[in-house]
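Q: Please design a sequence for this.
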């Protein structure tokens, strides 16, 4: 078992390292190899992840009959909340990421990680390509707790690794156990402005709402140097008030002199190990037509499915996001999310959470999953 696990990890890590930079059109060229690795991973997970095996068998989908990655059973997000999804024994003290619990406080997703070799590689290379296409490092001002404060948050590890891999000596997080340290953020912004040193603000959506409220209250504005950018990791769900994207963009422009084309949003979650990014900064740097849709790395595939039938819909049509992530080696590579999106070629547009009236197919999948794992 140990040797089998090591071989599977090595195969995935090699795929990531061989395809760490991907370009438009590469995805289809790589599909044959992706298919082979995905089927190897499905076979591994089928034989070593018992709840997933039961679920796959209930759909009559086994490694003997599945020949295409598109046919691998999709694990509903609810599975991570109700079951232990892991291909190796869980040990005391093993690293685990927990969801925030905003949608279901009594059942939080658990995603276990015996090691982070693949997770870190999957995070590092797309970050460089889509967040910092024009430079190797930048001053990163983190507006989200790092992993020392919240070790069970995938986003906290993400922030810590971003600073470790790409932050200069002025980079740090500005969040303690009581919240954002606004005055320290202001001091760092003023210093960067004085030194004409580009900065990147990095935080969840509502981190910026709170920071913008603070700046407005104290009548503060900044003219940040060229090359500065704002990285929004998402996360509006379950919060006390909402703000439209257009209002957010205008407030960012007013507060920091960062325009829409220097703003980037990420798609990630507890249950997956890879992230997707807006193409915006990549397009600006390479002087090509700017797109605000999201790109996924070469070891990920995204399909958009009809929420009722879970069958694929044509490009341009709204549906539920199905996420296939080779970096998710330890749990389930194919995830049925709770998010709506629209596919645009090899990119996709994220629309937000699925509504109750739109989730018939998800509900059926969840019922089937839980019934065979009672």
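A: Design:
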């Amino acid at each position: 078992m140990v040797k089998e696990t090591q071989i599977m990890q090595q195969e995935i890590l090699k795929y990531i390292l061989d395809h760490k930079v991907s370009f438009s059109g590469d995805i289809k060229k790589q599909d044959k190899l992706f298919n082979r690795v995905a089927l190897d991973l499905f076979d591994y997970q089928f034989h070593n992840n018992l709840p997933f095996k039961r679920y796959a068998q209930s759909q009559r989908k086994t490694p003997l009959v599945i020949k295409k990655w598109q046919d691998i059973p999709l694990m509903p997000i609810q599975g991570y909340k109700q079951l232990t999804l892991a291909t190796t024994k869980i040990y005391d003290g093993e690293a685990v990421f927990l969801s925030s619990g905003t949608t279901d406080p009594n059942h939080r997703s658990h995603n276990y990680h015996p090691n982070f070799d693949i997770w870190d590689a999957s995070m590092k290379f797309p970050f460089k390509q889509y967040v910092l296409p024009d430079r190797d490092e930048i001053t990163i001002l983190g507006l989200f707790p790092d992993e020392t404060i919240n070790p069970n948050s995938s986003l906290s590890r993400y922030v810590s690794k971003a600073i470790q891999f790409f932050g200069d000596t002025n980079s740090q997080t500005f969040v303690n156990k009581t919240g954002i340290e606004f005055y320290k953020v202001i001091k760092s912004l003023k210093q960067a402005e004085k030194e004409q040193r580009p900065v990147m603000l990095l935080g969840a959506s509502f981190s910026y709402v709170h920071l913008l409220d603070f700046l407005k209250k104290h009548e503060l504005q900044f003219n940040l140097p060229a090359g500065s950018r704002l990285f929004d990791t998402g996360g509006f769900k379950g919060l006390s008030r909402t703000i439209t994207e257009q209002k957010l963009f205008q407030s960012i422009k007013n507060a920091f002199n960062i325009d829409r084309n220097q703003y980037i949003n990420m798609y990630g979650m507890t249950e997956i190990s890879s992230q997707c990014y807006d193409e915006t900064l990549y397009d600006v740097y390479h002087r090509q037509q700017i797109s605000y849709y999201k790109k996924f790395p070469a070891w990920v595939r995204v399909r958009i499915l009809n929420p009722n039938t879970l069958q694929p819909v044509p490009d341009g049509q709204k549906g539920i996001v199905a996420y296939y992530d080779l970096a998710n080696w330890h749990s389930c590579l194919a995830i049925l999310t709770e998010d709506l999106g629209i596919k645009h070629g090899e990119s996709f547009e994220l629309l937000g959470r699925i509504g109750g009236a739109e989730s018939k197919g998800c509900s059926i999948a969840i019922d089937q999953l839980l019934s065979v794992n009672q």
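Q: Thanks. Anything notable?
A: Residues 2-108+297-371 form one domain. The chain has two domains: 2-108+297-371, 118-291.
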